[in-house]
Amino acid sequence: MSLVDARLECSNAQALTASADSTNVIDLTGTALQVGAGRPLYMHFNVVVAADFTSADETYSFGVATGAATSLGTVLASRAIVAGTLVAGYNFSIAVPSTGVLRYIGAEYVLAGTSPTITVDAYLSDQEVYSWQSYADAI
Known about the structure:
The protein is mainly β. It has one domain (8-31, 40-128): Jelly Rolls (Sandwich). 0% of the residues lie in helices and 44% in strands. It has strands at 9-16, 20-21, 26-27, 41-49, 59-67, 74-81, 91-96, 104-112, 118-125. Strands 2, 3, 5, 6 and 8 form a five-stranded antiparallel beta sheet that branches. Strands 1-9-4-7 form a four-stranded antiparallel beta sheet, with no helix packed on it. The radius of gyration is 14 Å and the shape is globular. The model has no long low-confidence stretch (mean pLDDT 86).
C-alpha cells in the first residue's frame, strides 16, 4: 500500500467474517462537507488475505458509506466482486460521490454465504485509480 495518512485509513488488515463497517471512520468536521470539491476522491481497497469461496455461495460487496454518527448507515456507492477475483494483492477503487456526504465517512463490507472470510485494507485518497500499486506489508 502506498504511504497513507493514518487519519484517512479506514481499514488496516481488517479481518472480516460477516458484514461490517470499517474499523475506522473519517470525521469530516471542519471540512464544510465539501468532499471532492475541485478534486475527486476515491476509496481504495486492497485484499490482504484472499476471500474464501470454498462453498461457492459466498458473496462480497464493498462500499463507501456515510452517516451522522460513527455507525454510518448510508451507502453512497458500492461494488460487488466475484469471490474468485479477490486474491491477495488484488486492488480496486470506488469513486466517492461529491454529494450526500454526512459528518462521517468510511467503508462498508457486505458478506454473505456459508463461510465468507477476507482481510482488507481501505483508505481515502485523491490519488487517481490507475496511478497506485499495492505491495505486501513490509512491517
